Amino acid sequence: MIIRDAELAFTHNVPPHRTLCNRGANGIDGIISTSLGASFGSKEK
Q1: Closest-CA residue to 24 (of 36, 40, 9)
Q2: pTM value?
């Protein structure tokens, strides 16, 4: 599983980070929807 490989690669003394993924539409529609949802859901400005 690719997410398990990412966990192994990114767990070496780095500050916490957030990983997002989507399970909806593919292509530009999915990318835009995911980025807008992440932006609206984020508490950072």
Answers
A1: 36
A2: 0.48
- What residue ranges do the domains of the chain occupy? 2-41
Q: What pLDDT digit, counting tens, does each position of 1-45 carry?
A: 666 777 777 666 666 777 777 776 677 888 888 888 888 888 775
- Conformation bin of residue 20: beta by default, left when phi > 0, alpha when psi is -120 to 50: beta
Show Cβ contacts of residue 6 under 8 Å, excluding neighbours closer than 6 positions: 19
Measured CA to CA, the distance from residue 26 to residue 15 in angstroms comes to: 30
Nearest in space to 39 (alpha carbons), one of 11, 15, 18: 18
